[in-house]
Amino acid sequence: MSMRRITFNAAVVPVLVLAFASTALSAQVILRGPAEGGAPGSGPLIISTTPSAMGSQRRLLERGDVQNHLRLTVRQKKELGLAPSPGTRTGSKPVETTAVPLRIEVDAKSSPEERQQSVQELSEKMRAQVEASHSASEAKIKEVLTPEQLKRLAELDLQFRGPLALGNPRVAAEVKLSSERRAPITALAQEAQRKMAEATVDALKEGKNIQQERKNRLSPLRKKTDQAKVEASEKILALLSPEEMARWESAQGKPFRFRTDL
Predict the structure, then answer these.
(1) Does the reported pTM lie above 0.85?
(2) Sequence ranges of the domains in the chain
(3) How many CA atoms lie within 13 A of 58 on its CB side?
(4) Which of 10, 55, 223, 243 has the fewest CB atoms inside 10 Å of its own CB, making it the most exposed?
(5) Of all helices (H) and strands (E), which one includes residue 150?
(6) 247 with 176: CB under 8 angstroms?
(7) 131-178 tens-digit pLDDT
(8) Bridge partners of 21?
(9) What is the pLDDT of residues 23-53, one digit of tens each?
(10) Residue 179 predicted with pLDDT over 90
């Protein structure tokens, strides 16, 4: 599973978990009082989350091209919260999160270790909410889709995520990666995710619309994320044996051309 780290330096730190999944959580880290040797709230605060693969499948189901390819019925779309809605490009309702905002307060005079421990506690709570949301989403998808649709959705998910998906233990086991290759592949996938998260945070700080930036191939965010993904993917594929490569290609099923304007 990939790890993302987001660093902020501020007295009040709003954190949007930019999971490559259907869940978005918000949290605040509030530093009380002046920090030693600096402005209130100075010093890095790190929030980390680990999304699950099922979250990425939920995101795929929000895409109109995937819905059409899987031939989802009106009933299935409705049960999954994907019923047609005016004003949306894909004809899907935005995914609503049931997670509640989280908040902790940290004494700014505390040591860096104590502050980091407080942030880590918030991180664990956020991670628990993400996993709970994904578990509910996974159960619902399995309940609504047919076995054939589930199989194809899993294949499309691997195609959409690319070789970085091999950093996920579940995918690595499915492709039967050798034990000596799993650690370096996971490291490459995590490094790519870190670079993509940093690019997203930079765009947020500049006040950019993240969804629009991701769709625009010429945007700095899109260029940085595409480059990180391509570089890591090439290195990951270079590590695979011919047998592992064959299993990876088989796991993806028939190639699908995703629309680039969604």
Answers:
(1) no
(2) 147-262
(3) 28
(4) 243
(5) helix 147-161
(6) yes
(7) 777 778 888 999 999 999 999 999 999 999 999 999 999 999 999 999
(8) none
(9) 344 444 444 544 444 443 433 333 434 344 5
(10) yes
Q: Which pair of tokens denotes residue 65?
A: 């091209």
The letter for the amino acid at 216 is: N
Q: Which two tokens stand for residue 62?
A: 């929000």
Neighbours of 225 (CB within 10 A): 22
63, exposed or middle or buried, with CB in 10 Å at 0-12, 13-18, 19+? buried
Rounded to the nearest 5 degrees, what angle is found at the Cα of 176, between the Cα atoms of 172 and 178? Answer: 90
Q: How far apart are CA 129 and CA 134, in angstroms?
A: 9
The residue behind tokens 């010429």 is: 218
Amino acid at 60: L
Number of other CB atoms surrounding residue 131 within 10 Å: 17
Q: Are 17 and 118 in contact (CB under 8 A)?
A: no
| Diameter of the chain measured on Cα atoms | 61
Q: Which of 219, 215, 224, 223 is nearest to 260 (CA)?
A: 215
